[in-house]
Amino acid sequence: MSTAWLFDSRAVEYDSWYTRHRITAENEARLVVDMLRDAPTPCMEVGVGSGFFAQRAGCVFGIDPSLEMLRIALDRGIEVAVARGEALPVRSLSLGSILVVVSICFMNDPHRMMEEAYRALKPGGVMVICIVPKESPLGRYYSTLADKGHPYYSHARFISIASLVEMAREAGFTVDSIKATITYMPWERERPEEPRDYTGKEGFACIRLIRGE
After folding, report:
1. Alpha-carbon distance 139 to 161, whole Å?
2. For residues 45 and 85, what is the distance between their CA atoms, to the nearest angstrom?
3. Burial class (CB within 10 angstroms; exposed 0-12, middle 13-18, buried 19+) of 172
4. How many CB atoms sit inside 10 A of residue 155's CB?
5. Strand 121-131 to strand 95-101: parallel, antiparallel, or no bridges (unpaired)?
6. What is d(CA 60, CA 77) in angstroms, rounded to the nearest whole number?
7. pTM, rounded to two decimals
8. What is the pLDDT of residues 68-108, one digit of tens each?
9. What are the residue ranges spanned by the domains of the chain?
10. Nearest 5 degrees, angle CA 105-CA 106-CA 108?
11. Burial letters for 18-49: b for 16+ Cβ neighbours within 10 Å, e otherwise?
12. CA gap 35, 99 in Å, rounded
């Protein structure tokens, strides 16, 4: 079932999180930028939302099923289109890199998205997927909130890093690196952090994948 209605109705509220949690948002953005460093262009974000990460990472184009979220992304200077990750509106072998931040957890068919990304990327292209790992302390906490009917997390399917790696390899990708950030919980004081190798304790992790030649 599509969750576009959820983000349409809460687009402004959702985007305000980046202001209310500026330090955490910048920690995550720092990791995203690091993982896309030297990645081929052009870059497209799948599930671009309000464009916060695309703007910082230099992704000029983004897709999302939520029209209201795309309106905010457009204001941030991102070219946008209403579409889903399972059916990318681009030609085969046309993209240099693809960014997916958390949105994979809301997709009906993440395996299909992986296949579509492989189709759309040029040989040697890069895909960076960021998630709240299911096995991390933050992932376990969010899962408890989901069970209690949280407006966002109750619609998410949290994924482990191991599952993400397996899906990527099945689609033909090679894992280049896995890095992470956020070692504190939501009730603790936010603090600036630098990207680090993923250990299972961090609440926001990104995997960098390479498409074969």
Report:
1. 11
2. 9
3. middle
4. 15
5. parallel
6. 8
7. 0.95
8. 999 999 999 999 999 999 999 999 999 999 999 999 999 99
9. 4-211
10. 105
11. beeeeebbbbbbbbbebbbeebbebbbbbbbb
12. 10
CA distance 135 to 185: 14
Question: Over the stretch 153-187, which tens digit does the pLDDT of each residue have?
Answer: 888 899 999 999 999 999 999 999 999 999 999 99
Q: Is 95 exposed, middle or buried (0-12, 13-18, 19+ CB in 10 A)?
A: buried
The first and second tokens of residue 102, run together, are 């958390």
Site of tokens 């995203």: 32
Whether the CB-CB separation of 204 and 31 falls below 8 Å is answered with yes
Helix (H, G, I), strand (E, B) or coil at 43: strand
Quick one: tokens of 140?
A: 């376990």
Q: What's the CA gap between 101 and 189, in Å, rounded?
A: 23
Grouping H, G, I as helix, E, B as strand and the rest as coil, residue 70 is: helix
Nearest to 48 by CA among 74, 30, 22: 74
Domain 4-211 has CATH 3.40.50.150: yes
The angle at the Cα of 115, spanning 200 to 165, to the nearest 5 degrees, equals: 15
The Cβ-side half-sphere exposure at 108, using a 13 Å CA radius, reads 8
For residue range 186-207, list pLDDT tens digits in order. 999 999 999 999 999 999 999 9
